[in-house]
């Protein structure tokens, strides 16, 4: 269950419990389904020709995966997603990587147009144990209820 506005404090770090191993088939399927035809996402030989040891996992797939890993802790019972800013793809990720996420509260303020709600801004980092380290960083914000609501839902 996600937290209410009042429970988030700037500087607070949340290590998201869920993690996910990325498999080559799902990474290639994402690229094919969304027409990302960069050959390094779809053809291991072309990826190797470009200097990679394996297929490169599409960074937009990783963005969606990392965002999803943070939902339970940050926004599962919250209001609308207000967007992501300053998305940085820091390094390539290859199939077999274990993807994890961590979020830091950057700021919060009460909504001036929606009483009982606040806006919380986090920086979320996607990372993998071992040499890959941090591979993705972005800021995001959501409308969050000022107090926990009975029954959850938006």
Could you describe the 3D structure shown?
There is one protein chain. This protein has 154 residues and is an alpha+beta fold. It has helices at 24-33, 39-42, 44-49, 59-74; strands at residues 13-15, 20-21, 81-89, 98-110, 117-128, 133-145. The protein starts with 12 loop residues before the first strand and ends in a 9-residue tail after the last strand. The protein has one domain (5-145): Hotdog Thioesterase (Thiol Ester Dehydrase, Chain A), CATH 3.10.129. It is elongated, with a radius of gyration of 17 Å.
Jot down its keywords.
6 strands, 6-stranded antiparallel beta sheet, 154 residues, 4 helices, alpha+beta, single chain, Thiol Ester Dehydrase, Chain A, disordered C terminus
Question: What is the overall shape?
Answer: elongated
Structurally, the number of domains stands at 1
The CATH architecture can be named as: Roll
CATH superfamily: Hotdog Thioesterase
Count of extended strands? 6
Summarize this entry quickly.
The protein is of the alpha+beta class. It has one domain (5-145): Roll (Thiol Ester Dehydrase, Chain A), CATH 3.10.129.
How do the helices and strands line up, and which of them pair or pack?
Blueprint: E1 13-15, E2 20-21, H1 24-33, H2 39-42, H3 44-49, H4 59-74, E3 81-89, E4 98-110, E5 117-128, E6 133-145
Antiparallel strand pairs: 1-4, 2-4, 3-6, 4-5, 5-6
